[in-house]
Amino acid sequence: MTVLAMVAPAAQVAGVLLGAPLVAGVMRQVRARLEGRVGAGVAQPWRDLRKHLRKQAMTPSGTTVVFSLAPAVVAGSALLIAAIVPLVTTFSPLDRMADLFAVVGLLLIGTVALALGGLDTGTAFGGMGASRGITIAALAEPTILLSVFALSLPAGSSNLGVIVAATAHDPWTVLSVPGALAFVALLTVIVAETGRLPVDNPSTHLELTMIHEAMELEYAGPRLALMEWASAMRLTVLLALLANLFAPWGIAGAGSGAGGFLLATVLIAAKVAVLALILGGIEVFVAKLRLFRVPELLAGSFVLALLAVTTSSFFASAVG
Amino acid sequence: MNQDLYTAGMNTAAGTLLLTAVLVVWRRELRAMVMLLACQGVALAALPIVDGIAHASAEVIGVGVAILALRGVVLPAVLLRLVARRGPARRGPARWVPARRESAPVVGTSLSLLITALLTVTAFAVTRPIVRLQATVGSMAVPVSFAVILIGIQVMATRRRALSQTVGFLMLDNGITSAAFLLTSGVPLVVELGASLDVLFVTLVLGLLARQVQAHFGDSDVGRLRELRD
Fold first, then answer.
1. A315 in contact with B at a CB cutoff of 8 Å?
2. A307: nearest CA in chain B?
3. pLDDT tens figures, B60-89
4. Residue A170, domain extent
5. Which residue(s) pair with A89 in the sheet?
6. Least buried of A13, A206, B41, B75, by fewest C-beta within 10 Å?
7. What is the pTM of this model?
8. pLDDT of B130-142, one tens digit each?
């Protein structure tokens, strides 16, 4: 175990921590430019965070410890995922914990904490947002599980590090029937999970349709900053994971030196930036779906993931 | 051509075939369905083109280019005209505006997606013997062809609009074409041309029929065709 391998998780956490607001900024800036606006700049989410962090922490009367702990749990679970999933290297000491089921469970902990924080205030909006958020999560989490499962079958392990390493070793295996199905399923479900268009509109406030914003409506100051930071981190981690599952080239292996690690870090940042650019561009062209049609969208991505697993096991058994 | 590249090309084409078929079931906008059909046509054409390049066979590449022109461009264009069509211009404002979406399919989207999953699993189950016979890159994609055939039949059976039924029919035919190509590793050009011309004429006739139905009823719901008259 080299020192570099020990440094990798720290580098991943730091990168996600610092880069997440920038990813959100890139998506907003792309959207602004495509709509003909100048935009606030890529660093605007960072300026927002600084502004929120300077404010006084407010606790609405009648709320309990659940309300004040929720932001920390959401951010903590996102950071833990950032530490264990293979972003920079497939060879880190935390790698054994990067099990598919553990990561999905951690995601769900964040979602549940967010929903509880929304419920705890006892306002109508918080309750509605929590109800919607959990509905979407209940449909989205199995799909994440299934679509990564389709990729894990050829690798023969549910450990994300092993899956990414297998794909990095043989990059063509992803270009297959299960790969294509799993990619579309995973992309759809990441969009749903992180509350982007067409499932939720991240740029609205005080509308009856909002989901994520409704849950954090009562938050202000540092806690709001933590909430927004955490949701940007979830998006960043999921995009990075998507990039590494399907295009892991450049990821550092066991034998890479300091140069390899540096290159891997730059490459993963570039991949996430490209994905953010593409997603931000797509968002300009889609409208938000009616809430009652969101389960339809998620049912579709679930079916795609199911088919990915079916075809994957078919190919595995036909070859082996 | 590199063996890895060949395998990846064939697998991507097969994956896109299945993906577009599922997406057609998913989407209800008629224009989106036609666009997906065009994508499926391109994926279908990629099968013989990749195979032809790998085996350096000009005839197979020719078949691929013909399929690309017909199924990727001409047929979707014919259907798109139908979607975009307004009423006869010389009679003033449009008398009927063509429907943009499949408003009331027989089976809802979620349920038809589940049926699609079942059909695909069935297709993979029943084609096992064929794949086991000779496990090549081509024959591994045969289950996908069967799945596309079954999904095409499903779309024809569960949609009401004439246009979406035509899309289902063309998907069925795409499936048959790819199965024929993958199983026989290369249909003669003449046979392929004959089949393609048939499909072209069927589509033109179906397009005309859809327009007539639309002009008569102001709607292309074929459920309204209940009586036979001469």
1. yes
2. B117
3. 888 888 889 988 898 888 888 877 655 444
4. 3-319
5. A252
6. A206
7. 0.82
8. 888 777 777 778 8
